Structures are given as structure tokens and as C-alpha cells.
Amino acid sequence: MNSGLAGKRRFVLILGCLTGLAAISIDMSLPAIPEMVRELATSLSLGQQIVTWFMAGLALGQLPAGLVSDRIGRMPVLYAGVLTFIAGGAICAFTGSIEQMLAGRFLQGIGASAGAVIARAIVRDVASGKEAARLLTIMVMIFTAAPMLAPMAGSLLVTVSGWRAPFIVIAVCGGLMLIGVNRGLRETRLPVRDHHILRQLWISLREFSRHRQCLFGVLLVLLTASGFLSLITSSSALIIEIYGYPVSQFGFIFALAGFAILLGSTINRRLLLTYSSMHVMGVGAVLIGVAALQMLLIVWLDAAPFWWLWGNVCLYMLGTGLLLPNATAMALDPVPAFAGVAASIIGTVQNLAAALSSLVSSLLYDGSIRNVVINMGICGTAVFVSFLLRAQILGSKPLFAEEGAD
């Protein structure tokens, strides 16, 4: 069933786009926040929660999606998720209140969760080890086009057609994704109903938690994502409100961070040809740690020239491109029989933490630089410290540390 799929370009492209659907939904909407807040007569703090509620839906939808996909197959769950995403997008595009907007974003996040978890599960269905890490890296390279292009597109749409335009385009992207899934993917998982669904969930969670390698991978993914998503939440306020850049320039500035992930992912793919995944993750952890420590210095100073602050954001994202695909592959590798649930655990924990971090970031926002970057500084430092303590966390030498070049 799975033979040869990992080498097909259209197959990998669609998986990357499925993973990037969430990034498009977040990044394209960011330039619309200030104008949306004014028209819906709400506060900037509440308006920034369009990211928080989307992330909450993205987190809560993944475990059910992964569990059901292990039982009935990947494709039915994927179709249901994309259709839900389109419905949530329609609510956001034509809302008349901030409450309806947040409800639509939550529904949209639930829909996007299916694409995120099923894409990772399919990778584990067709590959393992360094091959899975390389495949995930290619997916990262594809979906990092979203942070590069989506904010620029969002800025242009807001400037030309108003704040609703990005949300309309996001819904249309969901429709295009539905066509892509129908034409480019096929089932990679045979239905398995050996146990009652709740017992299957319990067995899957127990098996996942038995492997320290899984837990260590999840920890790195969780901390890394929490750091950069907390800043993404406040990025429009930081760039437009605090530093005074016009909306038309927001997309180009934000694209620098997307380019940094793309560069990191490209370097990662090449390094995996020679070095183990653990060694490559170490490079990423160091880069994230260096950026995070400088963020904490900026917190202490409560002031920084924009080039210094955003340069460290880009350095953090460069390290993310090196660390995230390998940490995800590490967490998925020991549990091929429960790939759907394993992928959903990674996504659920990652996005719940990111939603909480995003919420804290929006609540802390008071117009100061300090409260915008503090979460990124703390989370990035925790990534570096966790990697330094990997021997204590893992307890024994993990599979990924023993890999040689392929």
C-alpha cells in the first residue's frame, strides 16, 4: 500500500500544503487584526485572540483525528477536516462580531488539525528514522513558504480590499486543498478495530509514554513552538504599533522569519546526509538558545533597535528549521502501529502549549517590547537546557544517536 509514495513529488507537496494550512490561516490573518479590531469595536488584546482560539481548535482536534484515522483510515478523517476548515473560514469571512470571529477561528482550527495530524501520520506510514526526518524536512520547506508569502498577501489584501479579504482567501485555500487531497493522496492505513475505541486510545497513549525517546521529542517540539508562536501572536502589534512600520511593509518583514526556517530546513536536509539526527538537533538547539538569551537581555533592557530584535527572531527560526523535523521524527519513530495517535499527541501538546503561550502573550501586551518577547526568551532557553540534559531525560542512548550516514 505504501510502496514508493515517499518519493512522489506531488504526494510530498500535498502533505506539505496540508501542514502549511494552519500557518497560512495564522499568518495571512495577522495584518488584518488592527483594522478588524476597529470595525468590530473591540480591543487589540481581544483581537489578537484570533490566533489563540485557532490554536486551541488546532490542539483539541488532533487527538480525535489521529485516533479515528488509526481505526478507519486516513482519508475519511482528512476529508471531514478540510470541509470543517472551509465552514469555519466562511464564518470568519462574513462575521459581524468578535465573538462570531473567535468561534469561526476555533472551528477552523479543528478542521486544520486533521490536516496537520494526518500528514505526520502518513509520513510514519511510509517512512521511518532518517528517511522520515528528511521527508518531514521537505514538508517544512514547503510549508515555510506560508510565513514568507502569506503575510505579504495578507497585507496587500487588507490594503486593497479591507480586513475581510484575507479570511475569504483562507477559505478558498481550503477549497483548493480539498481538490488536491482528492487528486494527489491515497489511503496509507488499513482500518484496524481490534479494540473498543477507548481501549485503543488507552493502549496507544500507554505505548507512547513508555518510550522516553517519544517524550523527549515531544518536549523539544512543545518548547520550540511555544516560543515562536507567542511572538507571532503579537507580531503585528510589535511591528506596526510599537515600531511604527506601515501595514504594507509588515509582510516583507515577517517573510524574513519564514526565509530563516526555509534556510534552516535546507541545511538540515543536507546535514542529515552525513550526521545523525541528534547532532543536527544539537545545532538547532544552540542557535535557539543563543537567540533566546539575547531576547532575555532585551526583556531586561526593555528596549532594542528593531534589527537586533528581529535578527534574533530569525536566528530562532533558523534553529527551528534544524530542530523541529528531527524532534518530530524522533517522537514518531518507536510507535509505527499507533502513528495516528502518536502524531496527534505531538500536535495536541504542541498546540495547547502554543495556544496558552499565545493567550499569555496577548494578555501581557501593554505596548512594551518586554512583554512581547519574554515568552520567546523563556521557551528558547528551556529548549537549550532540555537538550543539554538529554542524557538524563532519555536514560539511555536513543536510536537516533546511533544513526550513521545513509
TrEMBL record:
Gene3D superfamilies: Multidrug resistance protein D (1.20.1720.10). One of its GO terms (molecular function) is xenobiotic transmembrane transporter activity. CDD domains: MFS_MdfA_MDR_like (cd17320). It is found in: Cell inner membrane; Cell membrane. The chain crosses the membrane at residues 12-30, 50-69, 76-96, 102-123, 135-157, 163-181, 214-240, 246-267, 279-301, 307-325, 337-360, 372-389. It is a multi-pass membrane protein. Residues 1-394 form the Major facilitator superfamily (MFS) profile domain. GO terms for cellular component: plasma membrane. Pfam families: MFS_1 (PF07690). Keywords: Cell inner membrane, Cell membrane, Membrane, Transmembrane, Transmembrane helix, Transport. GO terms for biological process: xenobiotic detoxification by transmembrane export across the plasma membrane. NCBIfam families: efflux_Bcr_CflA. Belongs to the major facilitator superfamily. Bcr/CmlA family. This is Bcr/CflA family efflux transporter. It comes from Woeseia oceani.
